[in-house]
Amino acid sequence: MRILITGGLGLIGKCLxxxxxxxGVDVEILDKRGTPTxxxxxxxxxxxxxxxxxxxxxxxxxxxxxxxVIWGERDPAxxxxxxxxxxxxxxxxxxxxxxxxxxxxxxxSSREVYGQPDRLPVQEDASLSPINVxxxxxxxxxxxxxxxxxxxxxxxxxxxxNVFGDIDDHPDxxxxxFSRAAANGDSMRVDGKDNVFDFTxxxxxxxxxxxxxxxxxEAEGPPPIHFVSGRATSLMELAQLARRAAGGSSSVVLxxxxxxxxxxxxxxxxxxxxxxxxxxETTVExxxxxxxxxxxxxxxxxxLPHPHLPEPAGAPIGxxxxxxx
Length: 325
Description:
Elements: E1 2-6, H1 11-22, E2 26-30, H2 47-54, E3 59-62, H3 69-74, H4 76-96, E4 104-110, H5 133-150, E5 155-160, E6 163-164, H6 174-184, E7 188-191, E8 196-197, E9 200-201, H7 202-218, E10 225-227, E11 233-234, H8 235-245, E12 252-255, H9 270-276, H10 284-301
Parallel strand pairs: 1-2, 1-3, 3-4, 4-5, 5-10, 6-9, 7-12
Antiparallel strand pairs: 8-11
């Protein structure tokens, strides 16, 4: 089986590529950050490239996106072009493949499509009421997947929530930001201490996606599905977890929440367990501890300019981004 991963050099894409290859799947990568020599360079805004790279693929995992709430607020036109038009291009290229060889499409969405939920935990059938550009673009992309499904394409939508687990993640996303600050003994800035989210370990999510890819070979795609832990953790609790994992030298600076952020989300994980036998195995305590110690190990490998010169004192980091994906 050959699978195309759009956005395959991103946080989830790199992990998923490894997971699929370990499961014996041939992986094709398309990413704007790729290189011509590696054969990974490509753009979902170019339907011709998609058409060519999708040939002979059994399926597509569509991860390419403007994946940050703050980026969507700063550049709504690009966010819409990539997240909505790019998804439309993926579906169009899939439809253009020969009828017997049309690939299935799994598309990544986000907890941001729900906006501010009325009740927790949120089930997949809850209404979609996004409050920011990024969330609206993801909801629109989901609408395209539903229409393609009605037209005969096998599709599935997966919704992520605060996926974390790699020191090479965007440094201002909340979990790596807190983990790095704690590892360095820097202060952590908490924008909305009572804001509550569902943090999910990267390898767990990629294991679920791998299972779903194998399911799509044999059956119709499931309805929208969460890959979430089902556990609520406040930003203040998250900061304290990072602090304790590093030995407790960091301080916390409190700030008010941002106006365009969702301030609470916990997802219901039962559908993933019922349909895929999947559940999040890594607790937020375990995940944060692993990430903090990975940053400590990275710091230990860094050579200071002079062995007798102290490192500069860290300033409070922030603001951080609590984007789901």
